[in-house]
Amino acid sequence: MDQALTPSIFDRFEPASGFLGLRAALAAPIAQICKVEKGHARRTSVVDLFRSILAEGRARARAGLEARGSGLACARLISQLEDELIGAIYDYVVAYVYPADNPTFAERLTIVAVGGYGRGMLAPGSDIDLLFLLPYKQTPWGESVVEAILYVLWDLRQKVGHATRSVAECMRQARADMTIRTTLLEARFILGSAELFIELQDAFDREVARSDAREFVAAKLAERDTRVRRAGASRYLVEPNVKEGKGGLRDLNTLFWISKYVYRVRDVEELVAAGLFTSAELSLFERCEEFLWRVRCHLHFATGRAEERISFDIQPLMAQRLGYHDRAGLSRVERFMKHYFLVAKDVGDLTAIVCAALEEKQAKPRAIFERFMQPFRRRRARAPHGDFIIAHDRISVADENVFHRDPVNIIRLFWMADHHGLPLHPDALRAVTLSLREIDADLRADKEANRLFLEILLSRNMTEIILRRMNETGVLGRFIPDFGRIVAMMQFNMYHHYTVDEHLLRAVGALSDLEAGRLPEHQQLVGEILPTIVNRKVLYLGLFLHDIAKGRKEDHSIAGKEVARTLCPRLGFTPGETETVAWLVEHHLTMSTYAQSRDLSDRVTIESFAAIVQTVERLKMLFVLTVCDINAVGPGVLDTWKSQLLRVLYWETEVVLGGGHSSADRKSRVAAAVAELRAALPDWSDEKFETYAKRHYPAYWLKVDVARKLRHAHMLEKLAGATTPLATAVELDRTRGAVELTVIAPDHRRLLSIIAGGCAASGANIVDAHIFTTADGLALDTIFFSRAFDFDEDELRRARRIADFIAKALSGEVIVSDAVQARAKQQQPLAAFTVAPEVVVDNSLSNVYTVIEVSGLDREGLLFELTNAISRLNLNIASAHIVTFGERAVDAFYVTDLTGAKIVSPQRHAAIKRALLEVFEPPAEKRAEKAQSVG
């Protein structure tokens, strides 16, 4: 075949007409091939022709998209290309493979596009869903043609989902299976017998669609719930799924499926005439659909596969392809993702509109609606304010002028929903979104409006749900403009799971839940402290504002302090209360930083933190704020270790601030921890336990939870009398999705480096480390590294292999540096992120040790390289504090020289900085080559 024919075929089509007529244009080249070639050679040449047509057509669709084209246009063009190609394949098969000169009535065949393809839109990596419709009485000819068409499509490496059925079989399965019913709802004729397709449509309308719509609506919304839970319950997850996630394309599809089924419309434009959408809402639907399709098509082309998750590594490329630029303190990645989340929010608004309309039409079961609206606390409602009514047990507006007549009613609506424990009717929420212009400077200055808002914030009912409704309708961002700036703002890092606004709402929700006893896993942590805080409103507002200045050029903690000083007086705070809120915002990261990256057994750490906090009341509020902040970062982030560190820092600081007195002094807390372990070891004699307890320093008793203490006790018991004590153990930490590796060995200055090297050589990425030394010279080190497998059995096998390798390294059977060097050649960097490395050498943070703080981009083997570099500098590591914030590693090492003294020479400080900064320099192979042999 002459490949020069392929470009000439496409040159016949104007861009505006797409590929319409391509099927007919291919007839001549196919005929020419079939005239001169026979058998297998003919089929090969025909398939090659189709392959080149498919590749060129997709390339043209991609070029149009990348020239700032429409996502919908791209999806429709790819769908049209498939239509024309399938038509050409059909023509080839019935003309040259299985010709039927005089086809009988039973030799009819209809090819129907169903599912997503039925909508006439295909993403570059989408499956092609086909229904081959045959008469009730089939002949071998029809089955042979279908098989031949499928084989050509498979040879073209098309992902084809297909079914071959009669009309009667379609109806029978549609009645029994809601998924098949949905695919047929979007059936679209491609080619063949039009009479068969009309018969299918008529039968579907008569036998299936006229049945009770409630069943279909309930099934689709239940299916949506399951899908959203699988993809991630929040629409504000920072790595969203554009197809299956909340606020994604599937949500728009579900809305249209339901509307199409209930209102019997064929096109989305008909929803206005049906009274479901206004013209403005239809325009919003179309804008959301266009944006999501543009993102999806770019995502498929950029990754070369049917990738639906906008992961961190692809987000920068997507932002570039879609034409975003750095602006106003936000990177182009953050601007792109903010746009995405705003669109997801708009999809949520449209979902609420459709659900309200379906309920009015009584096509939607009440239970489904309540699940969609989220649970509210049920109370007997009194008659509401005159401008509001209770409709179907939900707060709604009395008339359309409620908010124009009194703009305070916008805030009052949400206050009443919380006060009466009733959900908000979607009609009321819709009216709010149409009245946002009423929220102006006068309303923001109104004392009653501010009083109502503060009562919502401080409510003990459903604070988080009400604030989220205010945010979703746009009220919160208009009423508090600084909050509006961070709505849908993502934080381009692997640490935060949610957008900034969602994080703040979850933090406030966590505080409300802690007060109400709804967070049992963290209740013990704050249970004694939270009720003693004098001023709740200071704590709540400080938590609500702590990240409100994210995305600005200046430090968000400093900028946030100024936001607090402006907003607090408006809400009626006294000058003293205002300063405390501002202080909380400024120092909201201080306690977690001290707890995780400082040696809490060092007196200077506690004294310097106490100097910042100054009062016990501030300490209490900062402690609770920090707990809620970490808890709202993502599931499992506030684990038992972080909780224990925060608790130790709190009590140690309370002693200093209380002048040496505390509600639980250090000795009594150590004694309580010892007694707790004693109760867990009833089989041990008093003498045996007393001897064991003396092996541990106070820091161990205060920092480690009882479950780990118990495991350590049994491990050390088994080592009793061993000539060279060495033991390892692995556990799965399901709370944080990590593996816990415990190593007990004789302490020496390169021990941590060998353990870290063993992890690096085995491909284990360390995310945390707990380092302790016993009084008799044993190191008790616990390393946490990321999981690699979904199944626990697989992960435990991997963890045991890593533990065995480390044991061999510690016993001298393997050379760690050789294994690390071999592993370094396979290492894949976190290309999506850049973190400027920084090294600080500080002698003021401890009376005994020099503290080296290192931060930079995390990767496999980083801790090994850092500790190895410190060892080469002839420094002893007394303690290490390893913290990972997503892609950012922040490690602190308390070190001395070989004589046990601090490092005071400026020249040595400079040498330390140079050596540790070199660790972050590429390429990985050169870094590995420089590593000295250890052990």
From TrEMBL:
HAMAP family, sorted: PII_uridylyl_transf (MF_00277)
Question: Would I find Hydrolase among this entry's keywords?
Answer: yes
Span list, region Uridylyltransferase? 1-383
Q: Where is the HD domain positioned along the sequence?
A: 519-622
The UniProt GO MF terms for this protein read: nucleotidyltransferase activity
Sorted keywords for this record are: Hydrolase, Magnesium, Multifunctional enzyme, Nucleotidyltransferase, Transferase
Note one Pfam family from the annotation: HD
Q: What is the activity regulation entry? A: Uridylyltransferase (UTase) activity is inhibited by glutamine, while glutamine activates uridylyl-removing (UR) activity.
EC identifiers of the protein: 2.7.7.59, 3.1.4.-
Catalysis: reaction(s): [protein-PII]-L-tyrosine + UTP = [protein-PII]-uridylyl-L-tyrosine + diphosphate; [protein-PII]-uridylyl-L-tyrosine + H2O = [protein-PII]-L-tyrosine + UMP + H(+)
Q: Where is the ACT domain?
A: 740-821, 851-935
The chain's coiled-coil residues are: none
Q: What is this protein called?
A: Bifunctional uridylyltransferase/uridylyl-removing enzyme
Cofactor(s) listed in the protein's UniProt record: Mg(2+)
What this protein is reported to do is described as: Modifies, by uridylylation and deuridylylation, the PII regulatory proteins (GlnB and homologs), in response to the nitrogen status of the cell that GlnD senses through the glutamine level. Under low glutamine levels, catalyzes the conversion of the PII proteins and UTP to PII-UMP and PPi, while under higher glutamine levels, GlnD hydrolyzes PII-UMP to PII and UMP (deuridylylation). Thus, controls uridylylation state and activity of the PII proteins, and plays an important role in the regulation of nitrogen metabolism.
UniProt lists the family membership as follows:
Belongs to the GlnD family.
Task: Let me see what the UniProt entry remarks about domains.
Answer: Has four distinct domains: an N-terminal nucleotidyltransferase (NT) domain responsible for UTase activity, a central HD domain that encodes UR activity, and two C-terminal ACT domains that seem to have a role in glutamine sensing.
